[in-house]
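Running this now, will post back.
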Amino acid sequence: MLARGAASVTLGTSEGALLTLEPKPGAALEPPTAAGLFHIAFLMPSRRDLARWLVHVARNQTPLTGFADHSVSEAVYLNDPEGNGLEVYADRPAENWRWDNGRVVMGTHRLDVDDILSLTNTAITDYAKAPDGLRIGHIHLRVGDVDAGDRFYKDLLGLAPTSRRDTASFLSSGGYHHHLALNTWNSAGAGRRDETSTGLAWFSLMTQKPELMAAQAERLASAKLAAAPIAGGFESLDPWGTRVRLLQG
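Update: finished.
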């Protein structure tokens, strides 16, 4: 925990904040068929760190919802107490990712958990805190329409497509397999989000290039979408009311 205030708790590592929890007393749980957060994905610095974390959650009897080998990464899934999806994963070396006509090859295969656990001593847990280097690797959103999501996140915000299916889109910057994913697996046709319910309040995308932020703001203005100034950048709403902060950092 990095900070605790009257209206929020900020979690992260010594390198900075990753997650802010904001209470909303009496709020209804956001249904899984609504647009919003599918999962937030925490990227471990190494495969061994993923192994140490797996021992930690096993020792604490934390319920897990799934495991997957995605070819580019190895992932473990769980939900928080309000049903927000979480992924904890480790990337395979980028030089081993396979690309086909500009699209990264990702799959969903059985995860070899025993092979991961072989990297640590399963008889003890030494995971006292999140390791330095832990970061948010990607955000995965539920949307009502993948094409509309692409128009906002690809055409207006400038993220590059890395993989595409009828019901899902994967986008990134700088050749990563994906920094953002969109799907309609449970939310096809979803309308605007109910701001009074639980779920994702906002997420941020950061760039070190001011000219990219200026281009984003110009494209949003051309589309007649608001880009409200905030400290360090501006924020806008996607077609379903999910708040996106564009920050320079």
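The mean pLDDT is 96. More later if anyone needs it.
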